[in-house]
Amino acid sequence: MNKFSLVLNIVLLVALGYLYYAFFNTNKPAQNVAVAKHDTADVNFKIAYFDLDTLEKNYGYAKETRDYLKSKYDAMESKLNKIKQDYMNKVNDYNKRGATLSQTEQSQMQEDLNRLDSYYAQQQQSLGQDYQGEYMRKMLDLKNKIQDFLKTYSAQRGYVYVFATNSDDNVIYYKDSVRNITTEVVNKLNEDFKSLKKK
User: SS3 for 149?
Assistant: First the structure.
């Protein structure tokens, strides 16, 4: 049996060697590959990038949006903490008075605790969804303001592509600082933002 498997392995190895040789040693007819012709306008395009982290730190509207969202989040947390504190106060009261309460009072306290717990979960979900919706709207508005500005800016400067990079960037491995337009973009966006605020 052992000799049979050895012979079988040798035969398979020889067959594999033949197939390898036959596949890579055949003369394939030359394939005609059509090379696409490019206009010079397509070849000479300009690319730039801006640092999104810097823009978020220095663009007035981005700061305003971040502060607004933080205040919304803090208000939500404050409301949830108040409900939680009310619940904990009821639990402490129940624990202090538990032995002296009648069966009816204990049932009533347990219902109150269950109601508060359910109310907390409902408020947590509702407020969380409201915050997520507001967050998405504000961030989309911020993105749209930046994109609208960049459409005009890029058309004026002749840029075909403008990339946003950040510290978590895993796509762009090398960025030539000559192509960095962050400072100019932030300054122009802030000028537009200040002029809109004055109105």
Answer: helix
21 assigned to some structural domain: yes
Report whether 53 contacts 46 (CB < 8 A): no
CA distance 19 to 61: 66
For the chain, the first-to-last Cα distance in angstroms comes to: 93
Q: In the beta sheet, which residues pair with residue 180?
A: 49
Question: What number of other Cβ atoms are within 10 A of residue 48's Cβ?
Answer: 22
Give me the helices (H) in 158-170, please.
none
Sequence letter at residue 168: D
0.90 cut: is pTM over it?
A: no
Q: What is the pLDDT of residues 101-157, one digit of tens each?
A: 888 888 888 898 899 989 999 999 999 999 999 999 999 999 999 999 999 999 999
Residue 139: give its domain's CATH number.
Answer: 3.30.910.20
Other C-beta atoms closer than 10 Å to the C-beta of 106 total 14
Q: How many domains does the chain have?
A: 1
Structural domain including 117 reads 2-27+40-198
Contact 186, 62 (CB under 8 A): no
Residue 33, domain member (yes or no): no
Stated as kind and residue range, the H or E segment containing 165 is strand 159-165
